[in-house]
Amino acid sequence: MARHSDLYRLIQPLPDLRSADGRGPVLVHGLEGFSDAGQAIEGATEHLRDSLDSQLIVEFDADQLVDYRSRRPHLKYSFDHFASYDEPTIQIHAVKDADGSSFLLLSGLEPDLRWDGFTESVIDLAGAFGVRMSIGLGSIPLGVPHTRPTNASAHASDVDLIRGFTAWPGEFSVPGNVSSLLELRMSEHGIPSAGFTVHVPQYLSQTAYPAAVLNLVGSIAKVGELDLPTEELEKSAEEFTSQVNAQIAHNAEILTAIEHMEKQYDEFMEARMGSDSLNPGGKPLPSGDEIGAEFERFLAQQSGGDSDGEPQPGE
Hints:
Structural class: alpha/beta
Distance between the termini: 33 Å
Strand order of the largest sheet: 1-3-6-7-2-8-10-9
Radius of gyration: 20 Å
CATH superfamily: PAC-like subunit
CATH architecture: 3-Layer(aba) Sandwich
Number of domains: 1
Shape: globular
Number of helices: 9
Helix content: 25-40%
Strand content: 15-25%
Order of helices and strands: EEHEHEEEEHEEHEHHHHH
């Protein structure tokens, strides 16, 4: 556990994380930065920390890991002085599910620096805590309609971990990110690893999208064999969908674009039946850009201000 102990500190006393049958905990990692469409990663980790019994046990040194110039933290200004500072954090919490089973939750900003040192630190900690498997969280914007079920792409070191889920087909290169690297390094060190990348409608990717959070939490619960609360998320997802539908009810241009997306989505799902492929016969889903501009007013209402339409860093 000491290879990169300069990157973190343990917060005592440390809890006993093993179950009654001696099994070690699951490690869930959700790091924000590379892509967090619909604020799904942030929403899922906050929901797990806030709705369950959680205890901070590891604090990483953000000063060594985060490039503040690329993602500048916010300072609050009040009339004639600076009042507070939104300090970046990267933390591990010990969390108990509804049945009292413990798991670990790694959350906060994705490190910009020292990726090898960070992933090695997490793997060392995983070994010390007896982690039995890891589950990573991701979120990307895609040209899918909000009127259809929210889906996610699954990936794992062992396909048996994600039976019943859907994976992207083929081989290709993707931009590197710490969560994916951690998933790879975990498997290289003999720790089974899985991950889920939820699909968020591109035209809603700049606002909090509760259905994506619900999807990620449900995936964690199923693969990690954890009892996680979802009633609040289900209610939020229903309310959000109703708000969107009310917003677009009298906009013929948006309704037509979404109907086109629905048609493509339905054809895509029909072609996928009986297969683990997400590729509908090579036919791509339409881009969400065609209706994104029409949602600027809606996004501004959701965020409480004007939306400039600019993506967040890494998205």
